[in-house]
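Quick entry between incubations.
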Amino acid sequence: MSREIVDASITFLLEEAEKRKCERLDITFFGGEPLLEKDHIFYITDTLEEKAAHLRINYKMSTNGTLITKPLMAQLMARRIFTSLSLDGPPSIHDKHRPQAGGQRSSRKAIEAAKIMLRYNPCTSVSCVISPDTAMHLADSADYLFNLGFRYLITTLDYSSDWTIKDFKTLKKSYQQLADWYENKMLSNERFYLSFFDERIRTRTFKPITAHERCHIGSRQFSIAPDGALYPCIQFVTTEGLPEYMIGHVSHGFDEACQAYITHCSEKEKSECNGCALEDRCSKWCSCINFMSTGSIEKASPIVCYNEQVLMEIVDRTADRLWKKRLPLFIHKHYNPDYPIIAHMELNL
Ligand code: SF4
Ligand code: SF4
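Done. Structure below.
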């Protein structure tokens, strides 16, 4: 992204915020590797600090860790850029899918980065992607990341991979192992967040995800491409561009007809889900995943579908066992709305 586009993006964001009477902006820097453009990032945060003191701005970024150093981490913390790390597990797992540009392994640098990041922020989250050829090691990966010091484990499948029936069978066994791991950690009174389990337990104990809690891609949620084009979400941003999903440009604003089309497609009922008991709890509304997996935002991803059905059953059984034991941590974690804040504070002590 050129500095001209950076400036135009800042102007566009401030004008939009003014028009919509926003009090808060959530900005996520994404790549490739966003820290390759750290000067742009600091320029953006410093400019907004100066020009938008009236807005509450939250910054987030996900890094592969290869450029993280202590001084850089100090700069990120000083600007309150909440940085998460992409690390898929121990080196033997991580290096399968994350080579550096020259083909070298990236795990050593990522693990060094993990130690630095956790020292600066014990609440650093780690993003662990599971591919068909790493699915069998899921519980080991979770344990490895936990032992490195991470307490916020964000697990996700690689939705762009070709998952076969055999892979799904492996995945099911892995989820059972992960359930044992989750239960043991809970029984040992460990404070942690495992997205695969905790997100799903929440949809049952607290409430299903309501429409207004979901992302509103193309309207309240959008991504800016390096050339200034506006897209509904990260997955649609490509260097060559996808004209049918381009919803405007920072230089002239949103194209409202395109925005309305995206909203219509993403919110349309999915006929394949009619009558499914999991409809309120399933994450089939993520248009990015649907697009990655099916090439369309209107169709529920079959990978999501299989995953939700297998995982939800295992998660619910685990939650039932913990509930029957009346485990205080389980009750606190899943029934106390203040738990996330309390857990965050405890970790920082
Ligand atoms: S479409 Fe999915 S990935 Fe994109 S912002 Fe919404 S929830 Fe996130
Ligand atoms: S589990 Fe499958 S059928 Fe049910 S809501 Fe999710 S995607 Fe639709």
